[in-house]
Amino acid sequence: MALIDTIAGRIPAARKGEAADAASRFAILVWFRRLVSGWLGLAVPLVLLAAWQTLSLLGVFQPTLVPPPAEVLREVGLLVDDGTLVEHIAVTGGRVGFGFFWGVLAATVLGVLTGQSRLARALLDPTLQALKAVPSLAWVPLFILWFGIFETSKVTLIAVGVFFPVYLNLMTAIRQTDRRLVEVARINGLSTWRTVRYVLLPGTLPAYVTGLRGGLALGWMFVIAAELMGASEGLGFLMVDGQMTGRPALIIASLILFAIAGKISDRLLAAAAAPWLGWQDSLETLEERDRDA
Amino acid sequence: MLDVQAVERRFTGRGPDPVTALGGVDLTIGEHEIVALIGASGCGKSTLLRILSGLDRPSGGQVALDGCGLVGPTPEIAMVFQEPRLMPWLTVRENIRLALLDLTRADQDARIAEVLERVGLGDAAGLWPRQLSGGMAQRVAIARALARRPAILLMDEPFSALDAFTKASLQDHVLDLWRDARFTLVLVTHDLEEAAYLADRVVVMKPGPGRIAAEVPVALAHRRDRTGPDLLAVKRQLAGLL
User: Fold this and answer.
1) Do residue A180 and residue B81 have CB atoms under 8 angstroms apart?
2) Alpha helix stretches (DSSP H) within B9-163
């Protein structure tokens, strides 16, 4: 509105109506541009979808290997009809959720500990860094042996995946907290608790959120590994099922559902954190980028 | 009155022997006085200021404020750093509130409005630090320091990052604040003109170990002529001592 006022204010009174028209045209243009950039991210998937459909119709793709989009949609429809789709998504989402919760909890406790205390860092960090180097799938046999083939081993595997990005980001952020801002807190007589609340916490939050988002992405990655190694429900199970029963449409449908679920959960996390990060110089660019994605 | 008695400060350096940043400094600063500490880098002037602020502790000797030994930061003594040091996640208003957390909410708001008005930023309360120019940010830092109504304001090269025009106008501004709020001002600077323009007394320090080499009283009325012969004479005298 300020912009509209400015534009209108610069024009002589007699032409104010015209100016208001110009201003509202400008506002509409801005609004339209936002809308377009918001939906721009759908362009590539739509083009790919069109190419996929066309090539399928032309017979370039073998339907037994690459089914047409309609077939994939039908497969999803079947799952919706017998009511199992929601169940599969819920099961997979639940595994990611639990794994995320425990991974974040452990990472936060250990990250704060090693970030704050030199002793804890010297003691724990080398071990954790070494564990980080172990490929995720290498844990699978051990976890199955320890926790059985049911939920516990799956959730543990996901938690391991979530743990490292969160831990590393948090520890680094705490270590890099600006000493000069802590001095401001000290000179103003802030208690330890107030220093944590007004200085340390907000200062480390951006890196923490980055860690959470990275951890969540890895959580979705690890849930696949967990479900491929043996599950009777979940999106990963659907994929194995599709492979076993020779239904590529089901595999592709699960892939797409994974992409959507991952994207939605990431946006929810980012949106939940956004009100606390509004101060950042870079957030506008970040949002801009997100909107384009 | 701020009384510095035989203050020493040693740091454990890289070598086997500790580095002596301050080797026995004695200094008395009277009420409503403006004292400038000048000297080459490494002379301990910033270390001395940090000890006065309570952020650093002397290895030997003591600092007394109105007869009481200083053991840490106190509301009586405020500090403005070389950089504004505003929390980027708090608005101007909330940054100043940080200095006032012990007051009631209403008192906080009244104080914030008062000090912002005083530094000429009455309209800036809702802005974020990233939206401020260097000069504005430093004014907010000064407002935050004054919000607690300190008896002593310490400033560590507060204008060195600013351009010449902003610097001159902020110096005058600080003089106005000093006249109104009647605090004692202790200022570290490497700028001879700033020292000669602002100070009632200039303390010249020398390194190895940091100590006071000379004290130069400046008996000129404030709002001095920056380019006049009196100020030039003071500057020349200070340059000779460094």
Assistant:
1) yes
2) 45-53, 92-97, 105-118, 134-147
Cα-only R_g, chain A: 25
Q: Alpha-carbon distance A42 to B11, whole Å? A: 61
Q: Distance between CA A156 and CA A186 in Å, rounded? A: 41
Inspect the interface and report whether the beta carbons of B74 and A194 lie closer than 8 Å.
no
Q: Return d(Cα A33, Cα A22) in angstroms, integer.
A: 16
pLDDT over 70 (residue A8): no
Which residues of chain B are under the pLDDT cut of 50? none
Minimal Cα–Cα distance from B91 to chain A, Å? 8
> Virtual CA dihedral for B172, B173, B174, B179, nearest 10 degrees?
90
For tokens 């509130």, name the residue.
B97
Unique residue bearing structure tokens 């504005």: B136
How far, in Å, CA of B239 to CA of A34, rounded?
A: 61
Asked whether the beta carbons of residue A279 and residue B88 sit closer than 8 angstroms, the reply is: yes
Sign of the CA dihedral with A124 first, then A130, A131, and A133 last? positive
Res. A78: pLDDT tops 70: yes
